[in-house]
DNA sequence: CTGTTAGCGCGTTCAA
DNA sequence: TTGAACGCGCTAACAG
């Protein structure tokens, strides 16, 4: 393995000159430049990153900490983060917390030890409470989860609005006894529930929100829905606060031999391929997933460049995609309102 | 930020003793141990990884290079890799190649520069040709893709067998004009096609394999299938060589207003949630995804521990999951064979 | 068992 | 513009 001193010797210059040529920002005569580049090529020299990092105190590495990469939301976000990072010559360290605060803290400690350039975090509820980015020794951007008073850059959906619109759509289409299944492990589920509750109240309807411990799998959502579907009377509609919970609800309906929208309507979040494929299609709020990831990494890059600039927040709007699972009911309230 | 010398001073010992206590493998008196640990705690000392890596020439980092993390196969594999890595105090650097050889090479160079402990790679066809793990300066394990003569540790499905069994199942159930859509960008698709061709031949049937440039999205599969479904006569069945292509085929059938299995049967790979949800369920070969990822990282850990041991290969068997999309045809060959 | 010391490979002063 | 020398923080020899 060739070292910088080997290159210097081969080129007949000092190691400092080699370093300068490689760094590119200092003034070096063209002749030295050429000789160094030639030697680098001849020796197949590659700078030692460990040494460079020790000296420069920079790692060109960012950390991506999510609850579970298998959640399609985070899958897509991580892809965007990796894409942009790659373009900026940054490596990405991937971490899954499983909504476990201890694991999350271990990973955050790891980020400090790694001296990463920055971190993109989807925090647990516990960590989000009173969260301040400047309490950490590295730049950090939150994604997907963030409260109104959180002191950190963040990229989120307008969750309250999304929950409100999705619920209003159901009500407009004649569904009145709507049950909202929301994940209790993240701020997102609670915010969407808030919108649901507001929409129900705005129409003089009683809200029924079912908490779901939606830790990464759809299983909890399925179980909760299945339990509810055994009781009578049946609700008019089931609403999921996330893509994973929606999957669980769909499974529960299938298992209960209930067709939607005839027996029970269904709606939720994330426009994943299967929501289109399951007949007659499932109504969802679509999030611009890749865009969210891209915004997060770009916010982080800006924060790295200007550590002291004011906190910024990117709030994206979800798109309501109406499908058969919430088709208008005959003689429904929606119709009478329209009349 | 406290340094090792600060800890040494605070504890009234030498830096070497601090290093020994932290390393744990040398003999140190209990009194020094306690004092060092106390000082470490008092000063909130954290060793500098950059310095440690420069000195020890080890990074405790592994690279995971896949075509696209959004492919559910790699999503699940990456989760397993991260889990096991975490347990072994290893970090994971995530890389997406998009089946692009140039990107793949850049990432492999990066792995060298990073001096990673090892790499898990899902190689492009180009890279797989004549691949030898020992041509690289770090331990490497292949996942998902591997030829018979590849000189590298690898974890793969028995793809030929899986393609054969899936096709045989179709034939047994009375489907004879079966078209196989396979991804041309990976060895996996070709191997599964091989099994398909063999099964068709074994029953005296003509094989029709349609190449699909399945670069990470289902779109190419959808387009290819849609094109074919416009022509007459229709085939008896569509078979996908991967989960993503299966998604595309399903979309094409939906778009063509063709119901399965009545108009055309459908089968493919990967037992993802949606294959159960799309009525009447899609027949698939299920791969033990998490298991594949786990086997890969464990193979890598063993290779790291014993760099010179013989090349090993883990070949897993897929499980045929029969669903409505390939229901037995009336008066079919399957019935007559069974009679 | 403990301390002293010499690097690991590089970037960056400081003089020239 | 260029080169010599120092030190980033740590681990591993070596000597005691």
UniProtKB/TrEMBL annotation, chains A, B:
**InterPro entries, from UniProt?**
HTH_LacI, Lambda_DNA-bd_dom_sf, Peripla_BP/Lac1_sug-bd_dom, Peripla_BP_I
CDD domains per the record? HTH_LacI (cd01392), PBP1_EndR-like (cd19977)
Gene Ontology MF, one: DNA-binding transcription factor activity
Q: Tell me the Gene3D superfamilies matching this sequence.
A: 3.40.50.2300, lambda repressor-like DNA-binding domains
Query: Is tRNA-binding tagged as a keyword?
Result: no
Pfam families under this entry? LacI, Peripla_BP_1
**Keywords linked to the UniProt accession:** DNA-binding, Transcription, Transcription regulation
Identify this protein by name. Transcriptional regulator lacI family
Q: What organism is the protein native to? A: Candidatus Competibacter denitrificans Run_A_D11
Traced from the root, the source organism's taxonomic lineage reads: Bacteria, Pseudomonadati, Pseudomonadota, Gammaproteobacteria, Candidatus Competibacteraceae
């Amino acid at each position: 393995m060739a070292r910088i001193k080997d290159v210097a010797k081969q080129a007949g210059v000092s190691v400092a000159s080699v370093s300068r040529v490689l760094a590119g920002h200092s003034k070096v005569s063209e002749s030295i430049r050429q000789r160094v580049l030639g030697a680098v090529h001849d020796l197949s020299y590659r700078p030692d990153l460990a040494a460079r990092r020790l000296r420069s105190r920079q790692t060109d590495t960012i950390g991506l900490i999510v609850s579970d990469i298998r959640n399609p939301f985070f899958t897509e976000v991580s892809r965007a983060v990796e894409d942009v990072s790659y373009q900026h010559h940054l490596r990405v360290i991937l971490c899954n917390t499983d909504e476990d605060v201890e694991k999350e803290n271990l990973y955050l400690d790891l980020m400090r030890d790694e001296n990463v350039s920055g971190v993109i975090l989807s925090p647990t509820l516990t960590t989000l409470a009173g969260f301040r980015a400047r309490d950490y020794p590295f730049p950090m951007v939150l994604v997907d989860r963030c409260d109104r008073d959180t002191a950190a850059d963040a990229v989120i959906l307008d969750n309250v609005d999304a929950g409100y619109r999705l619920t209003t759509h159901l009500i407009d289409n004649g569904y009145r006894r709507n049950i909202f299944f929301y994940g209790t492990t993240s701020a997102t589920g609670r915010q969407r529930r808030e919108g649901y509750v507001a929409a129900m109240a705005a129409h003089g309807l009683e809200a029924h929100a079912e908490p779901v411990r939606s830790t990464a799998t759809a299983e909890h959502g399925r179980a909760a829905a299945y339990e509810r579907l055994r009781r009578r009377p049946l609700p008019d509609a089931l609403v999921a606060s996330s893509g994973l919970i929606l999957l669980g609800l769909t499974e529960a309906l299938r298992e209960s031999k209930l067709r939607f929208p005839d027996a029970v309507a269904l709606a939720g979040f994330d426009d994943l391929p299967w929501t289109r494929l399951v007949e007659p299609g499932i109504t969802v709020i679509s999030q611009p997933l890749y865009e969210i990831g891209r915004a997060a990494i770009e916010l982080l890059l800006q924060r790295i460049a200007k550590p002291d600039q004011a906190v910024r927040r990117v709030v994206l709007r979800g798109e309501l995609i109406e499908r058969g699972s919430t088709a208008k009911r005959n003689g429904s309230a929606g119709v009478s309102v329209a009349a």
